[in-house]
Design brief:
InterPro entries: 2TM_P5A-ATPase. The protein is of the alpha+beta class. The chain contains three helices and five strands; from the N terminus they run ββαααβββ. It is elongated, with a radius of gyration of 21 Å.
């Protein structure tokens, strides 16, 4: 179960708790590192260098498109760079979904303050 707050207000509709993935495990890093390694090991030795560079150009263009989509779409950015969590203390960010015609989705950092409890003496 993923913790989601359905606010349903005039400005904010929903808040999802998310945590940023470690850099190597993000979907805009790991799959492309594997693809570049496969290109280096299998494609480069087997075909002409010009053809291998054409394949590399295709891989680079897909990688650039992936990076651009993370800038264009908050949902895609959350899919690629964040994982959903079900505990507020495990989250480090929130995805805020506004109500209709109230703005655009945003990922905002989550800061948790510790409350100081004074004991009455």
């Amino acid at each position: 179960m993923v913790l989601r707050f359905n606010v349903g207000g005039k400005v904010v509709d929903r808040v999802d708790l998310i945590r940023k993935k470690k850099w190597p495990w993000r979907l805009d890093v790991l799959p492309f590192a594997v693809l570049y390694a496969i290109w280096m090991v299998t494609i480069v030795p087997s075909i002409d260098i010009v053809d291998a560079l054409i394949v590399l150009g295709g891989l680079v263009s897909i990688h650039v498109l992936t990076l651009l989509f993370t800038a264009w779409s908050i949902d895609f950015k959350c899919f690629v760079q964040y994982s959903k969590v079900n505990d507020i203390y495990a989250a480090d960010s929130c995805k805020v979904t506004p109500a209709k015609f109230s703005g655009s989705k945003e990922v905002v950092p989550l800061h948790i303050r510790q409350q100081i409890v004074f004991s009455g003496e």
